[in-house]
Design a protein that fits this description.
Number of strands: 4
Radius of gyration: 18 Å
Helix content: 25-40%
Strand order of the largest sheet: 1-2-4-3
Organism: Chrysotila carterae (Marine alga)
Number of domains: 2
Number of helices: 3
Oligomer: single chain
GO molecular function: kinase activity
Largest sheet: 4 strands, antiparallel
InterPro entries: ATPase_NBD, FGGY_Carb_Kinase
Protein name: Carbohydrate kinase
Distance between the termini: 40 Å
Keywords: Kinase, Transferase
Order of helices and strands: HEEEEHH
């Protein structure tokens, strides 16, 4: 029995987003999220980076992931905007509040973990 393992979401999205341009970066936001790039070798990777194999054999992917990116917005919506039935309207209300916040917002830290 032979088993073939395809690329996971990180490798597939990186191959499509960067199209073989080592050094370029992109940001992916879904339920989880990451900022990633591709490199020809892993020798210079920071110890805290997440490294996976690339779909191109001689490359690797370096990513800084977060376990919940947009998923935390759904959680916030359920807590603060449950009275708004329409999802789009609820997110527009969230956007309006965020847009009215002053830069720095008193050193507020957003840490979606």
């Amino acid at each position: 029995c032979r088993v073939c393992h395809g690329a996971g979401d990180l490798a597939a999205v990186t191959a499509a987003a960067l199209s073989g341009h080592p050094g370029w970066l992109y940001c992916y936001l879904g339920t989880s999220g990451w900022i990633a790039t591709e490199v020809p070798s892993v020798e210079a990777v920071a110890p805290r980076a997440f490294v996976v194999r690339h779909t191109i054999p001689d490359r690797s992917i370096i990513a800084a992931p977060t376990t919940t990116a947009c998923g935390n917005l759904l959680w916030l919506r359920s807590l603060l905007f449950a009275d708004i039935a329409d999802d789009a309207a609820a997110f527009r209300a969230m956007d309006a509040i965020a847009a009215s916040a002053p830069p720095g917002s008193g050193s507020l830290l957003y840490l979606p973990y």
